Amino acid sequence: MHTVAALALGGFFTATGLGHFLAAPYFRSLVPAWIPAPGAVVAASGIAEIAVAGSLFVPQTRVAGGWAAVVLIGGFLVVWLDALRRVSSGAERFADRPLGMAAVLAANAGYLLWAGYIAVG
């Protein structure tokens, strides 16, 4: 089960890492205004996700990759916690509404648990 979890998270990180380049405007829109150079941040985080994915695919680096995923996902929570300030029941995007933000935060908690499961071997 551990191997399946690692390979699935690796696939997820590969897809989202590539998404940083294929859908860069969307990912830039997630970067809080107080973080400089959103384009560079999106590119760097996309590269980091792809690198972490690579480490999850290799059995010898899987545990380290799990810990790297925990750190990366934890860093992404900054984006969502910042977005929490703008939550409004009348928001256009679902993720900017209370229920949407609750879903986003729950999903990220799940990602942290998923990565943590891999990290502890």
Keywords:
121 residues, globular, DoxX-like protein, transmembrane, membrane, mainly alpha, transmembrane helix
Write up what this structure looks like.
With 121 residues, the protein is mainly alpha-helical. The protein has one domain. It is 76% helix and 0% strand. It contains five helices and no strands. Helix 1 crosses helix 2, helix 1 packs across helix 5 and helix 4 runs antiparallel to helix 5. The longest helix has 22 residues. The radius of gyration is 15 Å and the shape is globular. The mean pLDDT is 94. It comes from Nocardia puris. Keywords: Membrane, Transmembrane, Transmembrane helix. This is DoxX-like protein.
Percent of residues in helices comes to over 70%
Tell me the overall shape.
Answer: globular
Q: What portion of residues belong to β-strands?
A: under 5%
Continuous helix count:
5
What is Rg? Answer: 15 Å
Strand segment tally? 0
The structural class is mainly alpha
Mean pLDDT: 94
SSE topology string:
HHHHH
Sheet of most strands: none
Keywords: Membrane, Transmembrane, Transmembrane helix
Transmembrane segments: 33-57, 64-81, 101-120
Organism: Nocardia puris
Protein name: DoxX-like protein
